[in-house]
Amino acid sequence: MKVFVIGLDSAPPDLLFNEFLDDLPNLRKLLSKSIYGPMKSSIPAITIPAWMCMATGKTPGELGLYGFRHRKGNSYKDIWIAHSLMVKEKAVWDYLGEKGYKSVVLGVPPSYPPKKINGWMIGCFITPDSSVNYTYPPELKSEIEKVVGDYIFDVVFRKENRDEVKEQIWEMTEKRFEVVRHLVETKDWDFFWFVEIGLDRVHHAFWKYFDESHHLHEPNSPYKNVIPDYYKLLDREIGKTLKLLDDDTAVVIASDHGIKKMKGCFAVNQWLVDEGLLKASYEKGKVIRFEQLDVDWSKTVAWAWGGYYARVFLNVKGRDPSGVVRMSEYDRVRDEIAEMLKSIRGPNGEKWDTKVFYPEEIYPTAKGDKPDMMVYFDDLYWRAAGTLGWETSYLLENDTGPDDAVHSEYGVFALHTPDMDGSKTIDATIYDFAPTVLSLFGLKASNLREKVLYNGYNI
Amino acid sequence: MPERTVKIPENIYEKIQERIKDTEFKSVDEYVTYVLQEVLASLEEEEENVFTEEEEEKVKERLRALGYLD
């Protein structure tokens, strides 16, 4: 059996499995002979580390990957960016390679720099640009360029010219599928996994035009059908691709997290300053990044990074360069700040469903440069802005360019195997993916905890 | 920490024995462990620096523009 995985970054179950399904004939046909359902993402529900949690079956804590950036040696300012070589745990293609199975891995984040695997690997969107070597083996790069010309890794969507964003996302996705089909046909693979990042970009860039309940919704916008049209594009491309697979191929669809409307941005560092926990001053009307803030570290208790979720760091004596919180007070101070964070209400006094996670409590182990707290403001509906200088800590528009959507905790999982005659809905977690894929090859990795989603029973 | 035995060629063993005379290394084992630790650490450091300065700035700028580094 071969296994072909279609990775759709940020695909949410409600749109893919329900709302849009009638307009997606190829996916509808596939799902009619599949097990499928929502898949709970990792904490944090972010592209990096989520795809690697899927690939390795390991938690962010075990991987030591908590997002795109990490503190370098407890520095306040120096960071390192996550890349493929920081993933030390085995991925499904490593287990398969040991048994002689060959894999094509295309754009599964982070896959730059490309790793030497038993097969072929192509860099994801953290590849600096197409001038570097982004393939394994290196000669694959010129082969790709013969097929599609300049390969497109990503589209930066936070700009006002929406027509240009749309055009670039379409071009990127069409090129990616051309490369996928070229590799499907020319390589003797057993396992194939690609990730299309365009879906996430289209969600973020065009959500307010599509979602009538969004606070910035513009009725009758010329962009209102961009999101549904992109799903149709994906369906067509997937349909063309599935035709090339032989009958003995299992097909998986998976996403790293879901997506939902953004209600606003919460300026977490500004709040920390206002609460007296971060000792610095900002000028209202002059927006600056946290790195530009003049912090009095000797009087600072806590500070934060923004993004789709917030990472809050305590300033710990003996650990941080100018730490003030004594280890003996660590638990008490952290609990107090967690309570303060959870009690934050919305701009109109409404109650928020804010979640605060302690890394060492939610993972079997928490390696590497971990934050002291991870925060989902109002269950991720409110992004965390790291910037300061706003008139209020509640921003109704994104702080760094147009973006109307945030991540949600549930992505999708679907599996079709040649012996399936019907469909069945299931609940999955991101940690079930690796053991399930390995089981399709008759393999079991003894160090993976989660469940196998399909054992060959009839449906 | 539990220990495992590895084999090294005789001539290398002798060279190390010669080299650690009058040093703080008490045995060939200790020296070999030290050297291997250093090599592994530098390999790991090398792995962490996959981007040139210019590339790293480019990637950070993009990640910021994509909303991952706010």
Can you give me a brief rundown of this structure?
The complex is a heterodimer of chains A (459) and B (70). In chain A, 29% of the residues lie in helices and 19% in strands.
How far apart are the first and last residues' alpha carbons of chain A, in Å?
19 Å
Main β sheet profile of chain A: 10 strands, mixed
Number of domains of chain B: 1
- Mean pLDDT of chain B equals 89
Poorly predicted runs of chain B are: none
Helix content of chain B: 55-70%
Query: What is the chains' assembly state?
Result: heterodimer
Decide which structural class fits the backbone of chain A.
alpha/beta
Overall SS class of chain B: mainly alpha
CATH class of the largest domain in chain A: Alpha Beta
In total, the number of strands of chain B is 0
CATH architecture of the largest domain in chain A: 3-Layer(aba) Sandwich
- Straight-line N-to-C gap of chain B: 43 Å
* Percentage of residues in DSSP E strands of chain A: 15-25%
What would the principal axes of the Cα set say about the shape of chain A?
globular
The CATH superfamily of the largest domain in chain A is: Alkaline Phosphatase, subunit A
Individual helix count of chain A = 13
Describe the protein.
- Chain A is of the alpha/beta class and 459 residues long.
- Chain A is built from 13 helices and 21 strands.
- Chain A has helices spanning 13-19, 25-31, 47-56, 60-63, 92-98, 140-148, 162-186, 198-210, 226-242, 268-274, 330-342, 359-362, 433-440, and strands at 2-8, 35-40, 69-71, 79-81, 103-106, 119-122, 135-136, 191-196, 249-254, 258-261, 264-267, 302-305, 310-314, 355-357, 373-376, 382-385, 394-395, 405-408, 410-416, 424-425, 428-429.
- In chain A, strand 12 and strand 13 form a beta hairpin.
- In chain A, helix 7 runs antiparallel to helix 8, helix 7 packs parallel to helix 9 and helix 8 packs antiparallel against helix 9.
- The longest helix of chain A has 25 residues, at 162-186.
- Chain A is globular.
- Chain B has 70 residues and is mainly alpha-helical.
- Chain A binds chain B through residues 46-48, 67-69, 80-81, 83, 85-86, 112-113, 125-126, 128-129, 132, 154, 156-158, 201, 204, 265, 305-308, 383-387, 398-401, 403, and chain B through 47-48, 50-51, 55-56, 58-60, 62-70.
